[in-house]
Amino acid sequence: MQTKHFKAPFQYKKIPVDDLRKQQEENKTDRARNTAGTIKRIWSYLAREKSMLLLVVLMVVVSSAMSLAGPFMVGMAIDDFIVTQEPSGLGRLLIGLLVIYILHSLSVFLQNYWMVGIAQNTVYSLREELFRQFHRLPIAFFDKRQHGELMSRITNDIDNINNTLNQSVIQIFTSILTLIGTVVVMLVLSPLLTLITMGIVPVMFMAIRWITHRTGPLYKLQQQHLGNLNGYVEETVSGQHVIKTFSREERVISEFGEHNANLRHAGFWAQTFAGFIPKVMNMLNFLSFGLVGLVGGILAVQGVITVGVIVIFTEYARQFTRPLNELSNQFNILLSAVAGAERVFNIIDEQQEETDETGAREIEATDGRIAFNSVSFAYDETPILKSVSFTAEPGQTVAFVGHTGAGKTTIINLISRFYNYDLGSITLDGIDLKDITRNSLRKQMAFVLQDAFLFHATIRENIRYGRLNATDEEVTAAAKNANAHQFIDRLPNGYDTILEQDGSGISQGQKQLITIARAILADPAILVLDEATSNIDTVTELQIQDALKRLMHGRTSFVIAHRLNTIQEADNIIMLENGEIIEQGSHESLISQHGHYYNLYKEQLKNRA
Questions:
Q1: Highest-pLDDT range among 226-235, 363-372, 533-542
Q2: Which residue ranges traverse the bilayer (predicted)?
Q3: CA distances from 251 to 3, 247, 259, 327, 441 (A)
Q4: 477-519, pLDDT tens digit by residue?
Q5: CB-based contacts of 418: which residues, under 8 Å, 6+ apart?
Q6: Which of 186, 211, 547, 573 has its Cα between 20 and 30 A from that of 515?
Q7: CA-to-CA distance for 352 and 133, rounded, in angstroms?
Q8: Would you say 314 and 293 are in contact if contact means Cβ atoms under 8 Å apart?
Q9: DSSP state of 360
Q10: Domains contained in the chain, CATH given
Q11: Are 287 and 51 in contact (CB under 8 A)?
Q12: Cα–Cα distance list, 282 to 275, 318, 341 (Å)
């Protein structure tokens, strides 16, 4: 479908000036440090393949030497055999030329073959390190980032690095060696012609500097828009049910068009400026050839140089400008890779989840007594909890109720140490949570959330995620306790049925029963339930509630509830408002107080009626 955002390339009349200036301003403060630092960090990965890199460099030296020897021998053939019309020895020279070109081809093949292996090993290590970093970052990091944008780092940006390593590293080495060797030979043959040839170098550098000053920020802008586009696509694919429910297809197509147009716009100008370089270089090449031919012809007529030298020099003049052209092109590619690498290293350099405090202990088991003592907490300086105090005794069920934003989920995040509290203390069996390692604390907990998350794997593997060393018999027993065995057994492949992405293919209630089975298998001392029966049909809800009763028996349980009829049997119901506890007690005691909880309960009864 065509929208107003989709324009043909010829309609691009304006560079994204504001975005370009912003990127250039950022470059003034961080380009010298970040670009050099990023290249150095990429090199640290390449340096792990030192032996292979030495072989590659050796092959680069051989190929560069052969590329210099070829034109020189052609010039010798002209002066010694063609001009003199003396064929003796020409055969040996032609055989020598054949050997040179074979060696050149073989060395180029080997350097490319080995460099592909080095590049693949490098990006393998980089991708693995980035993925490991994802699992070391705190929950707060993911709460603030688009998941699709993060996916772009581990796919597009690292692929960009891989392509650049394959294309650019060898090319840069070859161009530098060829450039040095060419200049040396040219100076030996004719200093005057060398000076004429090198006279175009300042013009080249001025042109390249002008172009790359614009391509660098545009490549960064292009990578930024690519990440935004990926994030938007991931979001819309995940939210297809909502989009179709509200018939917002046209809106998301239009918004995608904006993201796509931004990416195309930045990419158009980045590639346009980058495309100027070969055109400018070709123009300067023709100018160089013309000058060499004109001055060389005059010198040859005067007997200063031979015709063979002119031929050699013409070829070397091409070889002199070609490395400059290739270096300038590779510089653009390198800028694009550096932009992607900076995005990757930005994630790798993100502050990881705080390490456990010195002396923090591992706990093997717990009674499950949790106490909040005047706990306060804020997200980004926005107060969420204010001096909250309560105690959950072993085996008790504590329910949290209140309007959205009251602080219910925050309490759970603090218990599991996804976030650290600011003031007060939270203790488990009398031990401050900060004195317990996060890993051992979370091993004592299991979660059954409102949105049941299942992996793309078999049902058996999804249940076994609660305890990886569980036997098949234990998995089946957990499913039976969760009232999930019956529907699993009816599936074509039973427990070996592979679930699609996020468990699509089975009902929401069935997904919830599987997550309950997973929690039962984990056998936690502390259980967290976040409205586990919402949006479930009545029959399945009864099955889930029955399974939850068995799961909660003998365990300290924390329940976030929106429907008050599901928590009437809780030992302690805590009513929160604006991060403070305004009421707490059993259902009966709170009803008898005729306070906030009573009013909320009556309102829900009236709405259900």
A1: 363-372
A2: 53-78, 90-110, 169-189, 195-212, 286-313
A3: 11, 9, 13, 45, 45
A4: 999 888 889 889 988 889 999 887 665 678 888 888 888 888 8
A5: 138, 139, 140
A6: 573
A7: 8
A8: yes
A9: P
A10: 9-348 (1.20.1560.10), 370-608 (3.40.50.300)
A11: no
A12: 12, 10, 31
Up-side HSE of residue 294: CA atoms within 13 Å toward CB?
Answer: 8
| Distances, alpha carbon 87 to alpha carbons 13, 83, 92, 98, 289, in Å | 62, 10, 10, 17, 30
Report the C-alpha gap between 446 and 416 in whole angstroms.
10
Q: How many CB atoms lie within 10 A of CB 8?
A: 6
Which residues contact residue 438 at a Cβ distance below 8 angstroms, ignoring those fewer than 6 apart?
353, 356, 417
- Rounded CA-CA distance 183/191 in Å is 10
DSSP H or E segment with residue 255: helix 249-301
Distance separating alpha carbons of residues 246 and 226, to the nearest angstrom: 27
Looking at residue 5, the DSSP 8-state letter turns out to be T
Could you give the 3-state DSSP secondary structure of residue 86?
Answer: coil
Q: Could you tell me the two tokens for 555?
A: 């365990």
Beta-carbon contacts of residue 159 (< 8 Å; ≥ 6 apart): 123
pLDDT at position 211 over 80:
no
Q: How far apart are CA 555 and CA 562, in angstroms?
A: 21
**Residues belonging to the chain:** 609
Query: What is the number of helices (H) and of strands (E) in the chain?
Result: 20, 10
Q: What is the Cα–Cα distance from 565 to 553, expressed in whole angstroms?
A: 19
Which position has the token pair 């049925």?
A: 497
Distance CA 80, CA 87 (A): 9
Sheet of 556-560, strands arranged across: 445-448, 526-530, 556-560, 397-401, 572-577, 580-585
Residue with the larger pLDDT of the pair 575 and 237: 575
Q: Which residues contact 177 (CB under 8 A, 6 or more apart)?
A: 60, 61, 64
Which helix (DSSP H) or strand (DSSP E) does residue 49 occupy? none
Residue 240's contacts (CB-CB under 8 Å, 6 or more residues apart) are none
